[in-house]
Q: What sequence folds into this?
């Protein structure tokens, strides 16, 4: 299975709530550069955090790829979500894109590669990671690429 993990693009610094922060113009450009690396990849689904900036990021990727399926919005991809919980929810899935936030994305990469959260990977805005493995278990996946726009 392959899993791509994409952190949302740069967002405005303030809004009524963290969940309502929108992408900036620079953030949209970052996402478009990262989305280009997904062209031709066999994605079966796009899962995204319900936060506005993640939804906007996922929608931009969907448009670039011409991906016809709807974005699947899930509450377990928010910034403070538990990487172990995310891993359990991926069981049985394949070739999917997760659009989320720090610190979750860095912690998830560490958990899937190393089996612990002690070495979170640096994930700037619109950074894209590609992992491969038989199952999305602790320490069972290999990082193939980590791209920063």
A:
């Amino acid at each position: 299975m392959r899993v791509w993990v994409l952190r949302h693009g740069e967002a405005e610094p303030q809004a009524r709530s963290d969940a309502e922060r929108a992408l900036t113009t620079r953030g949209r450009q970052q996402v478009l550069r990262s989305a280009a690396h997904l062209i031709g990849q066999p994605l079966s689904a796009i899962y995204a955090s319900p936060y506005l900036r993640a939804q906007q990021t996922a929608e931009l990727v969907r448009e670039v790829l011409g991906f016809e399926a709807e974005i699947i919005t899930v509450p377990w991809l928010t910034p403070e979500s538990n990487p172990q919980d995310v891993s359990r929810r991926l069981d049985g899935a394949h070739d999917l894109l997760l659009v989320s936030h720090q610190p979750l994305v860095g912690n998830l990469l560490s958990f899937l590669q190393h089996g612990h959260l002690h070495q979170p990977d640096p994930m700037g805005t619109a950074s894209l990671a590609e992992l491969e493995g038989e199952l999305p278990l602790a320490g069972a996946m290999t990082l193939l690429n980590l791209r920063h726009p």
Remarks:
- The domain at 2-147 is CATH 3.40.50.1240 (Rossmann fold).
- The chain has four helices and six strands.
